Prior knowledge:
Blueprint: H1 7-10, H2 17-23, E1 51-52, H3 64-74, H4 84-96, E2 103-106, H5 108-121, E3 125-129, H6 135-142, E4 148-151, H7 161-164, E5 172-178, H8 190-200, E6 205-209, H9 219-222, H10 225-229, E7 234-239, E8 252-255, H11 258-267, H12 274-283, H13 287-310, E9 314-315, E10 322-326, H14 331-340, E11 343-344, E12 355-359, H15 363-378
Parallel strand pairs: 1-11, 3-4, 3-5, 5-6, 6-7
Antiparallel strand pairs: 2-8, 7-8, 9-10, 10-12
Amino acid sequence: MTFDLSRRLLLGGALSGASLAASGIGAGAFAREFETPPKKKSVYGPDPKDAHLIFNENPYGPSPKALKALAEAAGQGCYYQGKSIGYLTDMIAERHGVAPEQVVIGSGSYELLTVMGLLYGQKGNILGPDLYWDTTAKYIEAHGLTTLKRSPMTAALEIDLDAMLPLVTDDVSHVQLVNPNNPTGHVLDPAALRAFVLAASKKANVLVDEAYIEIADDPEAISMMDLVREGHDVIVCRTFSKIYGMAGLRIGYAIGQPEAIAAIQNSLITSPNVAGIAAAIASYDDNEFLGFSKSKIQTAREMIMEGTKAAGLKPLPSQTSFVFVDTGMDANVFRDRMREKGVLIRGKYGDFHNYSRVSCGYLEDVKRYVAALPYALEG
């Protein structure tokens, strides 16, 4: 059994200037091609022999501007970040039309999500869907500090907002959503999500984790940032780990009402590193690089979609830097067979035993994933 990817996808360029413009990343960004960072053996990254498609990193980052800022900031590494964190805070606040006191920056969104869970979890239960990035909520639950309640998914593995809303009861203090969702890649209908958030936020704090939103087709249309500006009890969380390609530099931010943001800020036990802040400042408005990244990610995603469908598998539609694939078999067995070919992907998630997530990494690595499908499926 062999699978052929279309020449169009293998040569790249799947993302048009028009779709980039619709996404909020200027079409002019699409014109520039950045040099692809070479794979090399290093204690700071994955083994170059492997096709590393497991953690949803963007291997094309950090941007050249970020790398230059990193080099400059390294000379100031003896100091704490000083005024730089305030500078980044002001940049974020200005872009989103909020006050600086409505923005908090953390060591990755992971830190911020954990602190939110701790703050609200001690007041009541956390509610989340059956299938979402629940790592921080499960961590808090494992320490006996809250209970993570679950709401069902639809048959298509979409978050069922209609089923979720009645579960926002008096014992729930914090509702968690990821949009676009991880690991499914699905984007919620913006009108339905707004209606849900407006209703739920009258009873509990609502978190919308938008880690992958810059990769979505129309980020502005699906974001809940406008509800923050309107004064609702909503927190929107974002990260520099994905489209910016800065996962190892650990910078994330949350935007909400001043009282909620102050509580998060006062509960942080560390501060972001000066190198990460410098890289974030340098790359925040780098639309050329963001357009390049988005183009590469979408090309890889279409290669995965085409290759898995040709193999008879069922990938879910995605607007992220990964694809959730129904392998038709135990996903851990599928993962282990892929690993034998040097392709690293995720195995099964919870009760969803047949589904495996694969990241949109280097195009050459995605080609290896597609080429290894016959072996993984047939053994």
